[in-house]
Amino acid sequence: MSYLLGVVLFALAILISVSLHEAGHLLTAKAFGMKVTKYFVGFGPTIWSFQRGETEYGLKGIPLGGFCKIVGMTPQDDDVEPGDESRVMWRYPVWKRTIVMAAGSITHFALALITIWILAVSAGLPNPDFPTTDAQARQEPAVIRLSDCVVPENSLRACAPGDAASPAAQAQLKNGDRITSINGTAINSYGDLLTTLRGLKPGETAQIAYVRDGQPATASTVLAQTQRPPLDDPTGAAAPVAALGVGLVPSTPTRVTYGPIGAFGATADFTGQLAVGTAQALQRLPQKVPALWTALTGGERDIDTPISVVGASRLGGEAVENNAWLVFFMLFVSLNFFIGVFNLLPLLPVDGGHIAIAWFERARSWVYARIGRADPGRVDYLKLMPFTYAVILIGGAFTLLTIAADVVNPITLFSR
Q1: Cβ atoms within 10 A of the Cβ of 114, count?
Q2: Which residues are catalytic?
Q3: Domains of the chain and CATH, by start
Q4: Model pLDDT for residues 243-256, shown as the tens digit of each residue
Q5: Which of 130, 171, 152, 355 is nearest to 254 (CA)?
Q6: What global pTM score does this model have?
Q7: Residue 323 CA: distances (Å) to CA of 30, 123, 351, 395
């Protein structure tokens, strides 16, 4: 029940975000005097609507987005009524059209920023000093977290029947113990622990010295076997190595909370990291198509592949089911930021395409004026329709592929 509640809540959050996106277009267009005839949440048949002034507001039967109809977005629009010629969007200055078209993405960014700030002063944001690379982790003290088993292959999968029990657990070690030596070799860091274990063999007995609650103690256990690449070459071929069945408990907290003022700086820093991550994710999109097809046809789902609204909602459901509300809201932040950036790409039919054309027209008019030639006027959108259809076709196919992968072979963050 909690899983389904989470799915519904996340889907509702997305719908509200998209509705506010369209409201951004609506409010800025009306503020500049443009004529807006329709504002609807959803698509398909109309369930309910009302007229206020010159705008019809309502709810459609398919709750997958929304739309805002601004009269005369292009010179080729033929829905201009007599007397409205001066209020069509394309006649307004380029800066006003830019604000109107960018208002949707700005709304998504605002939602993300507000949510990040709230998290910063409540649940906390990821600690920038938390070790995120192998090199950083190896500098940490060897404070351990027990695994339930030792997976025999080089994999991060959950334990399965037949996997060897954790040697550390068999030795009665506990989470939070700090290992200080193995077979007489001093362990001063997690890197020392890994290096020392690589010098031993699977099946060999290890004499372990450790500290628990400030008190030194010793234990003995037989090491298991797993597969790992060389420590100095994480991309190298995996080979059999000895395993203790432990992970690292970093000495730094995973999250940091801030005061109301300090949260602004933390929000800015986190947003910068989010922007870099989003740009990198967009660059990787074409490379992930084969991985999505592999997942759809029965292969393992790469956790780094894109997800659709369906996949995001399923992850939101998992987060609620596991009481991981921070994950829920971080998903909400990431999705809003991604949608905001995606809508600013200079491609029709998204908002960024209209902005790019408006500024192209402005730049072209300026150049023609400087060289003494007549202004060529507005871009003919009809000539761009083949490119627009190509973007729609490619984007639609990619969306369908992602949704299918999220249904057949979804990404999961928690064991269910």
Answers
A1: 13
A2: 22
A3: 1-124+298-408 (no CATH), 134-248 (2.30.42.10)
A4: 999 988 887 888 89
A5: 130
A6: 0.80
A7: 42, 13, 36, 34
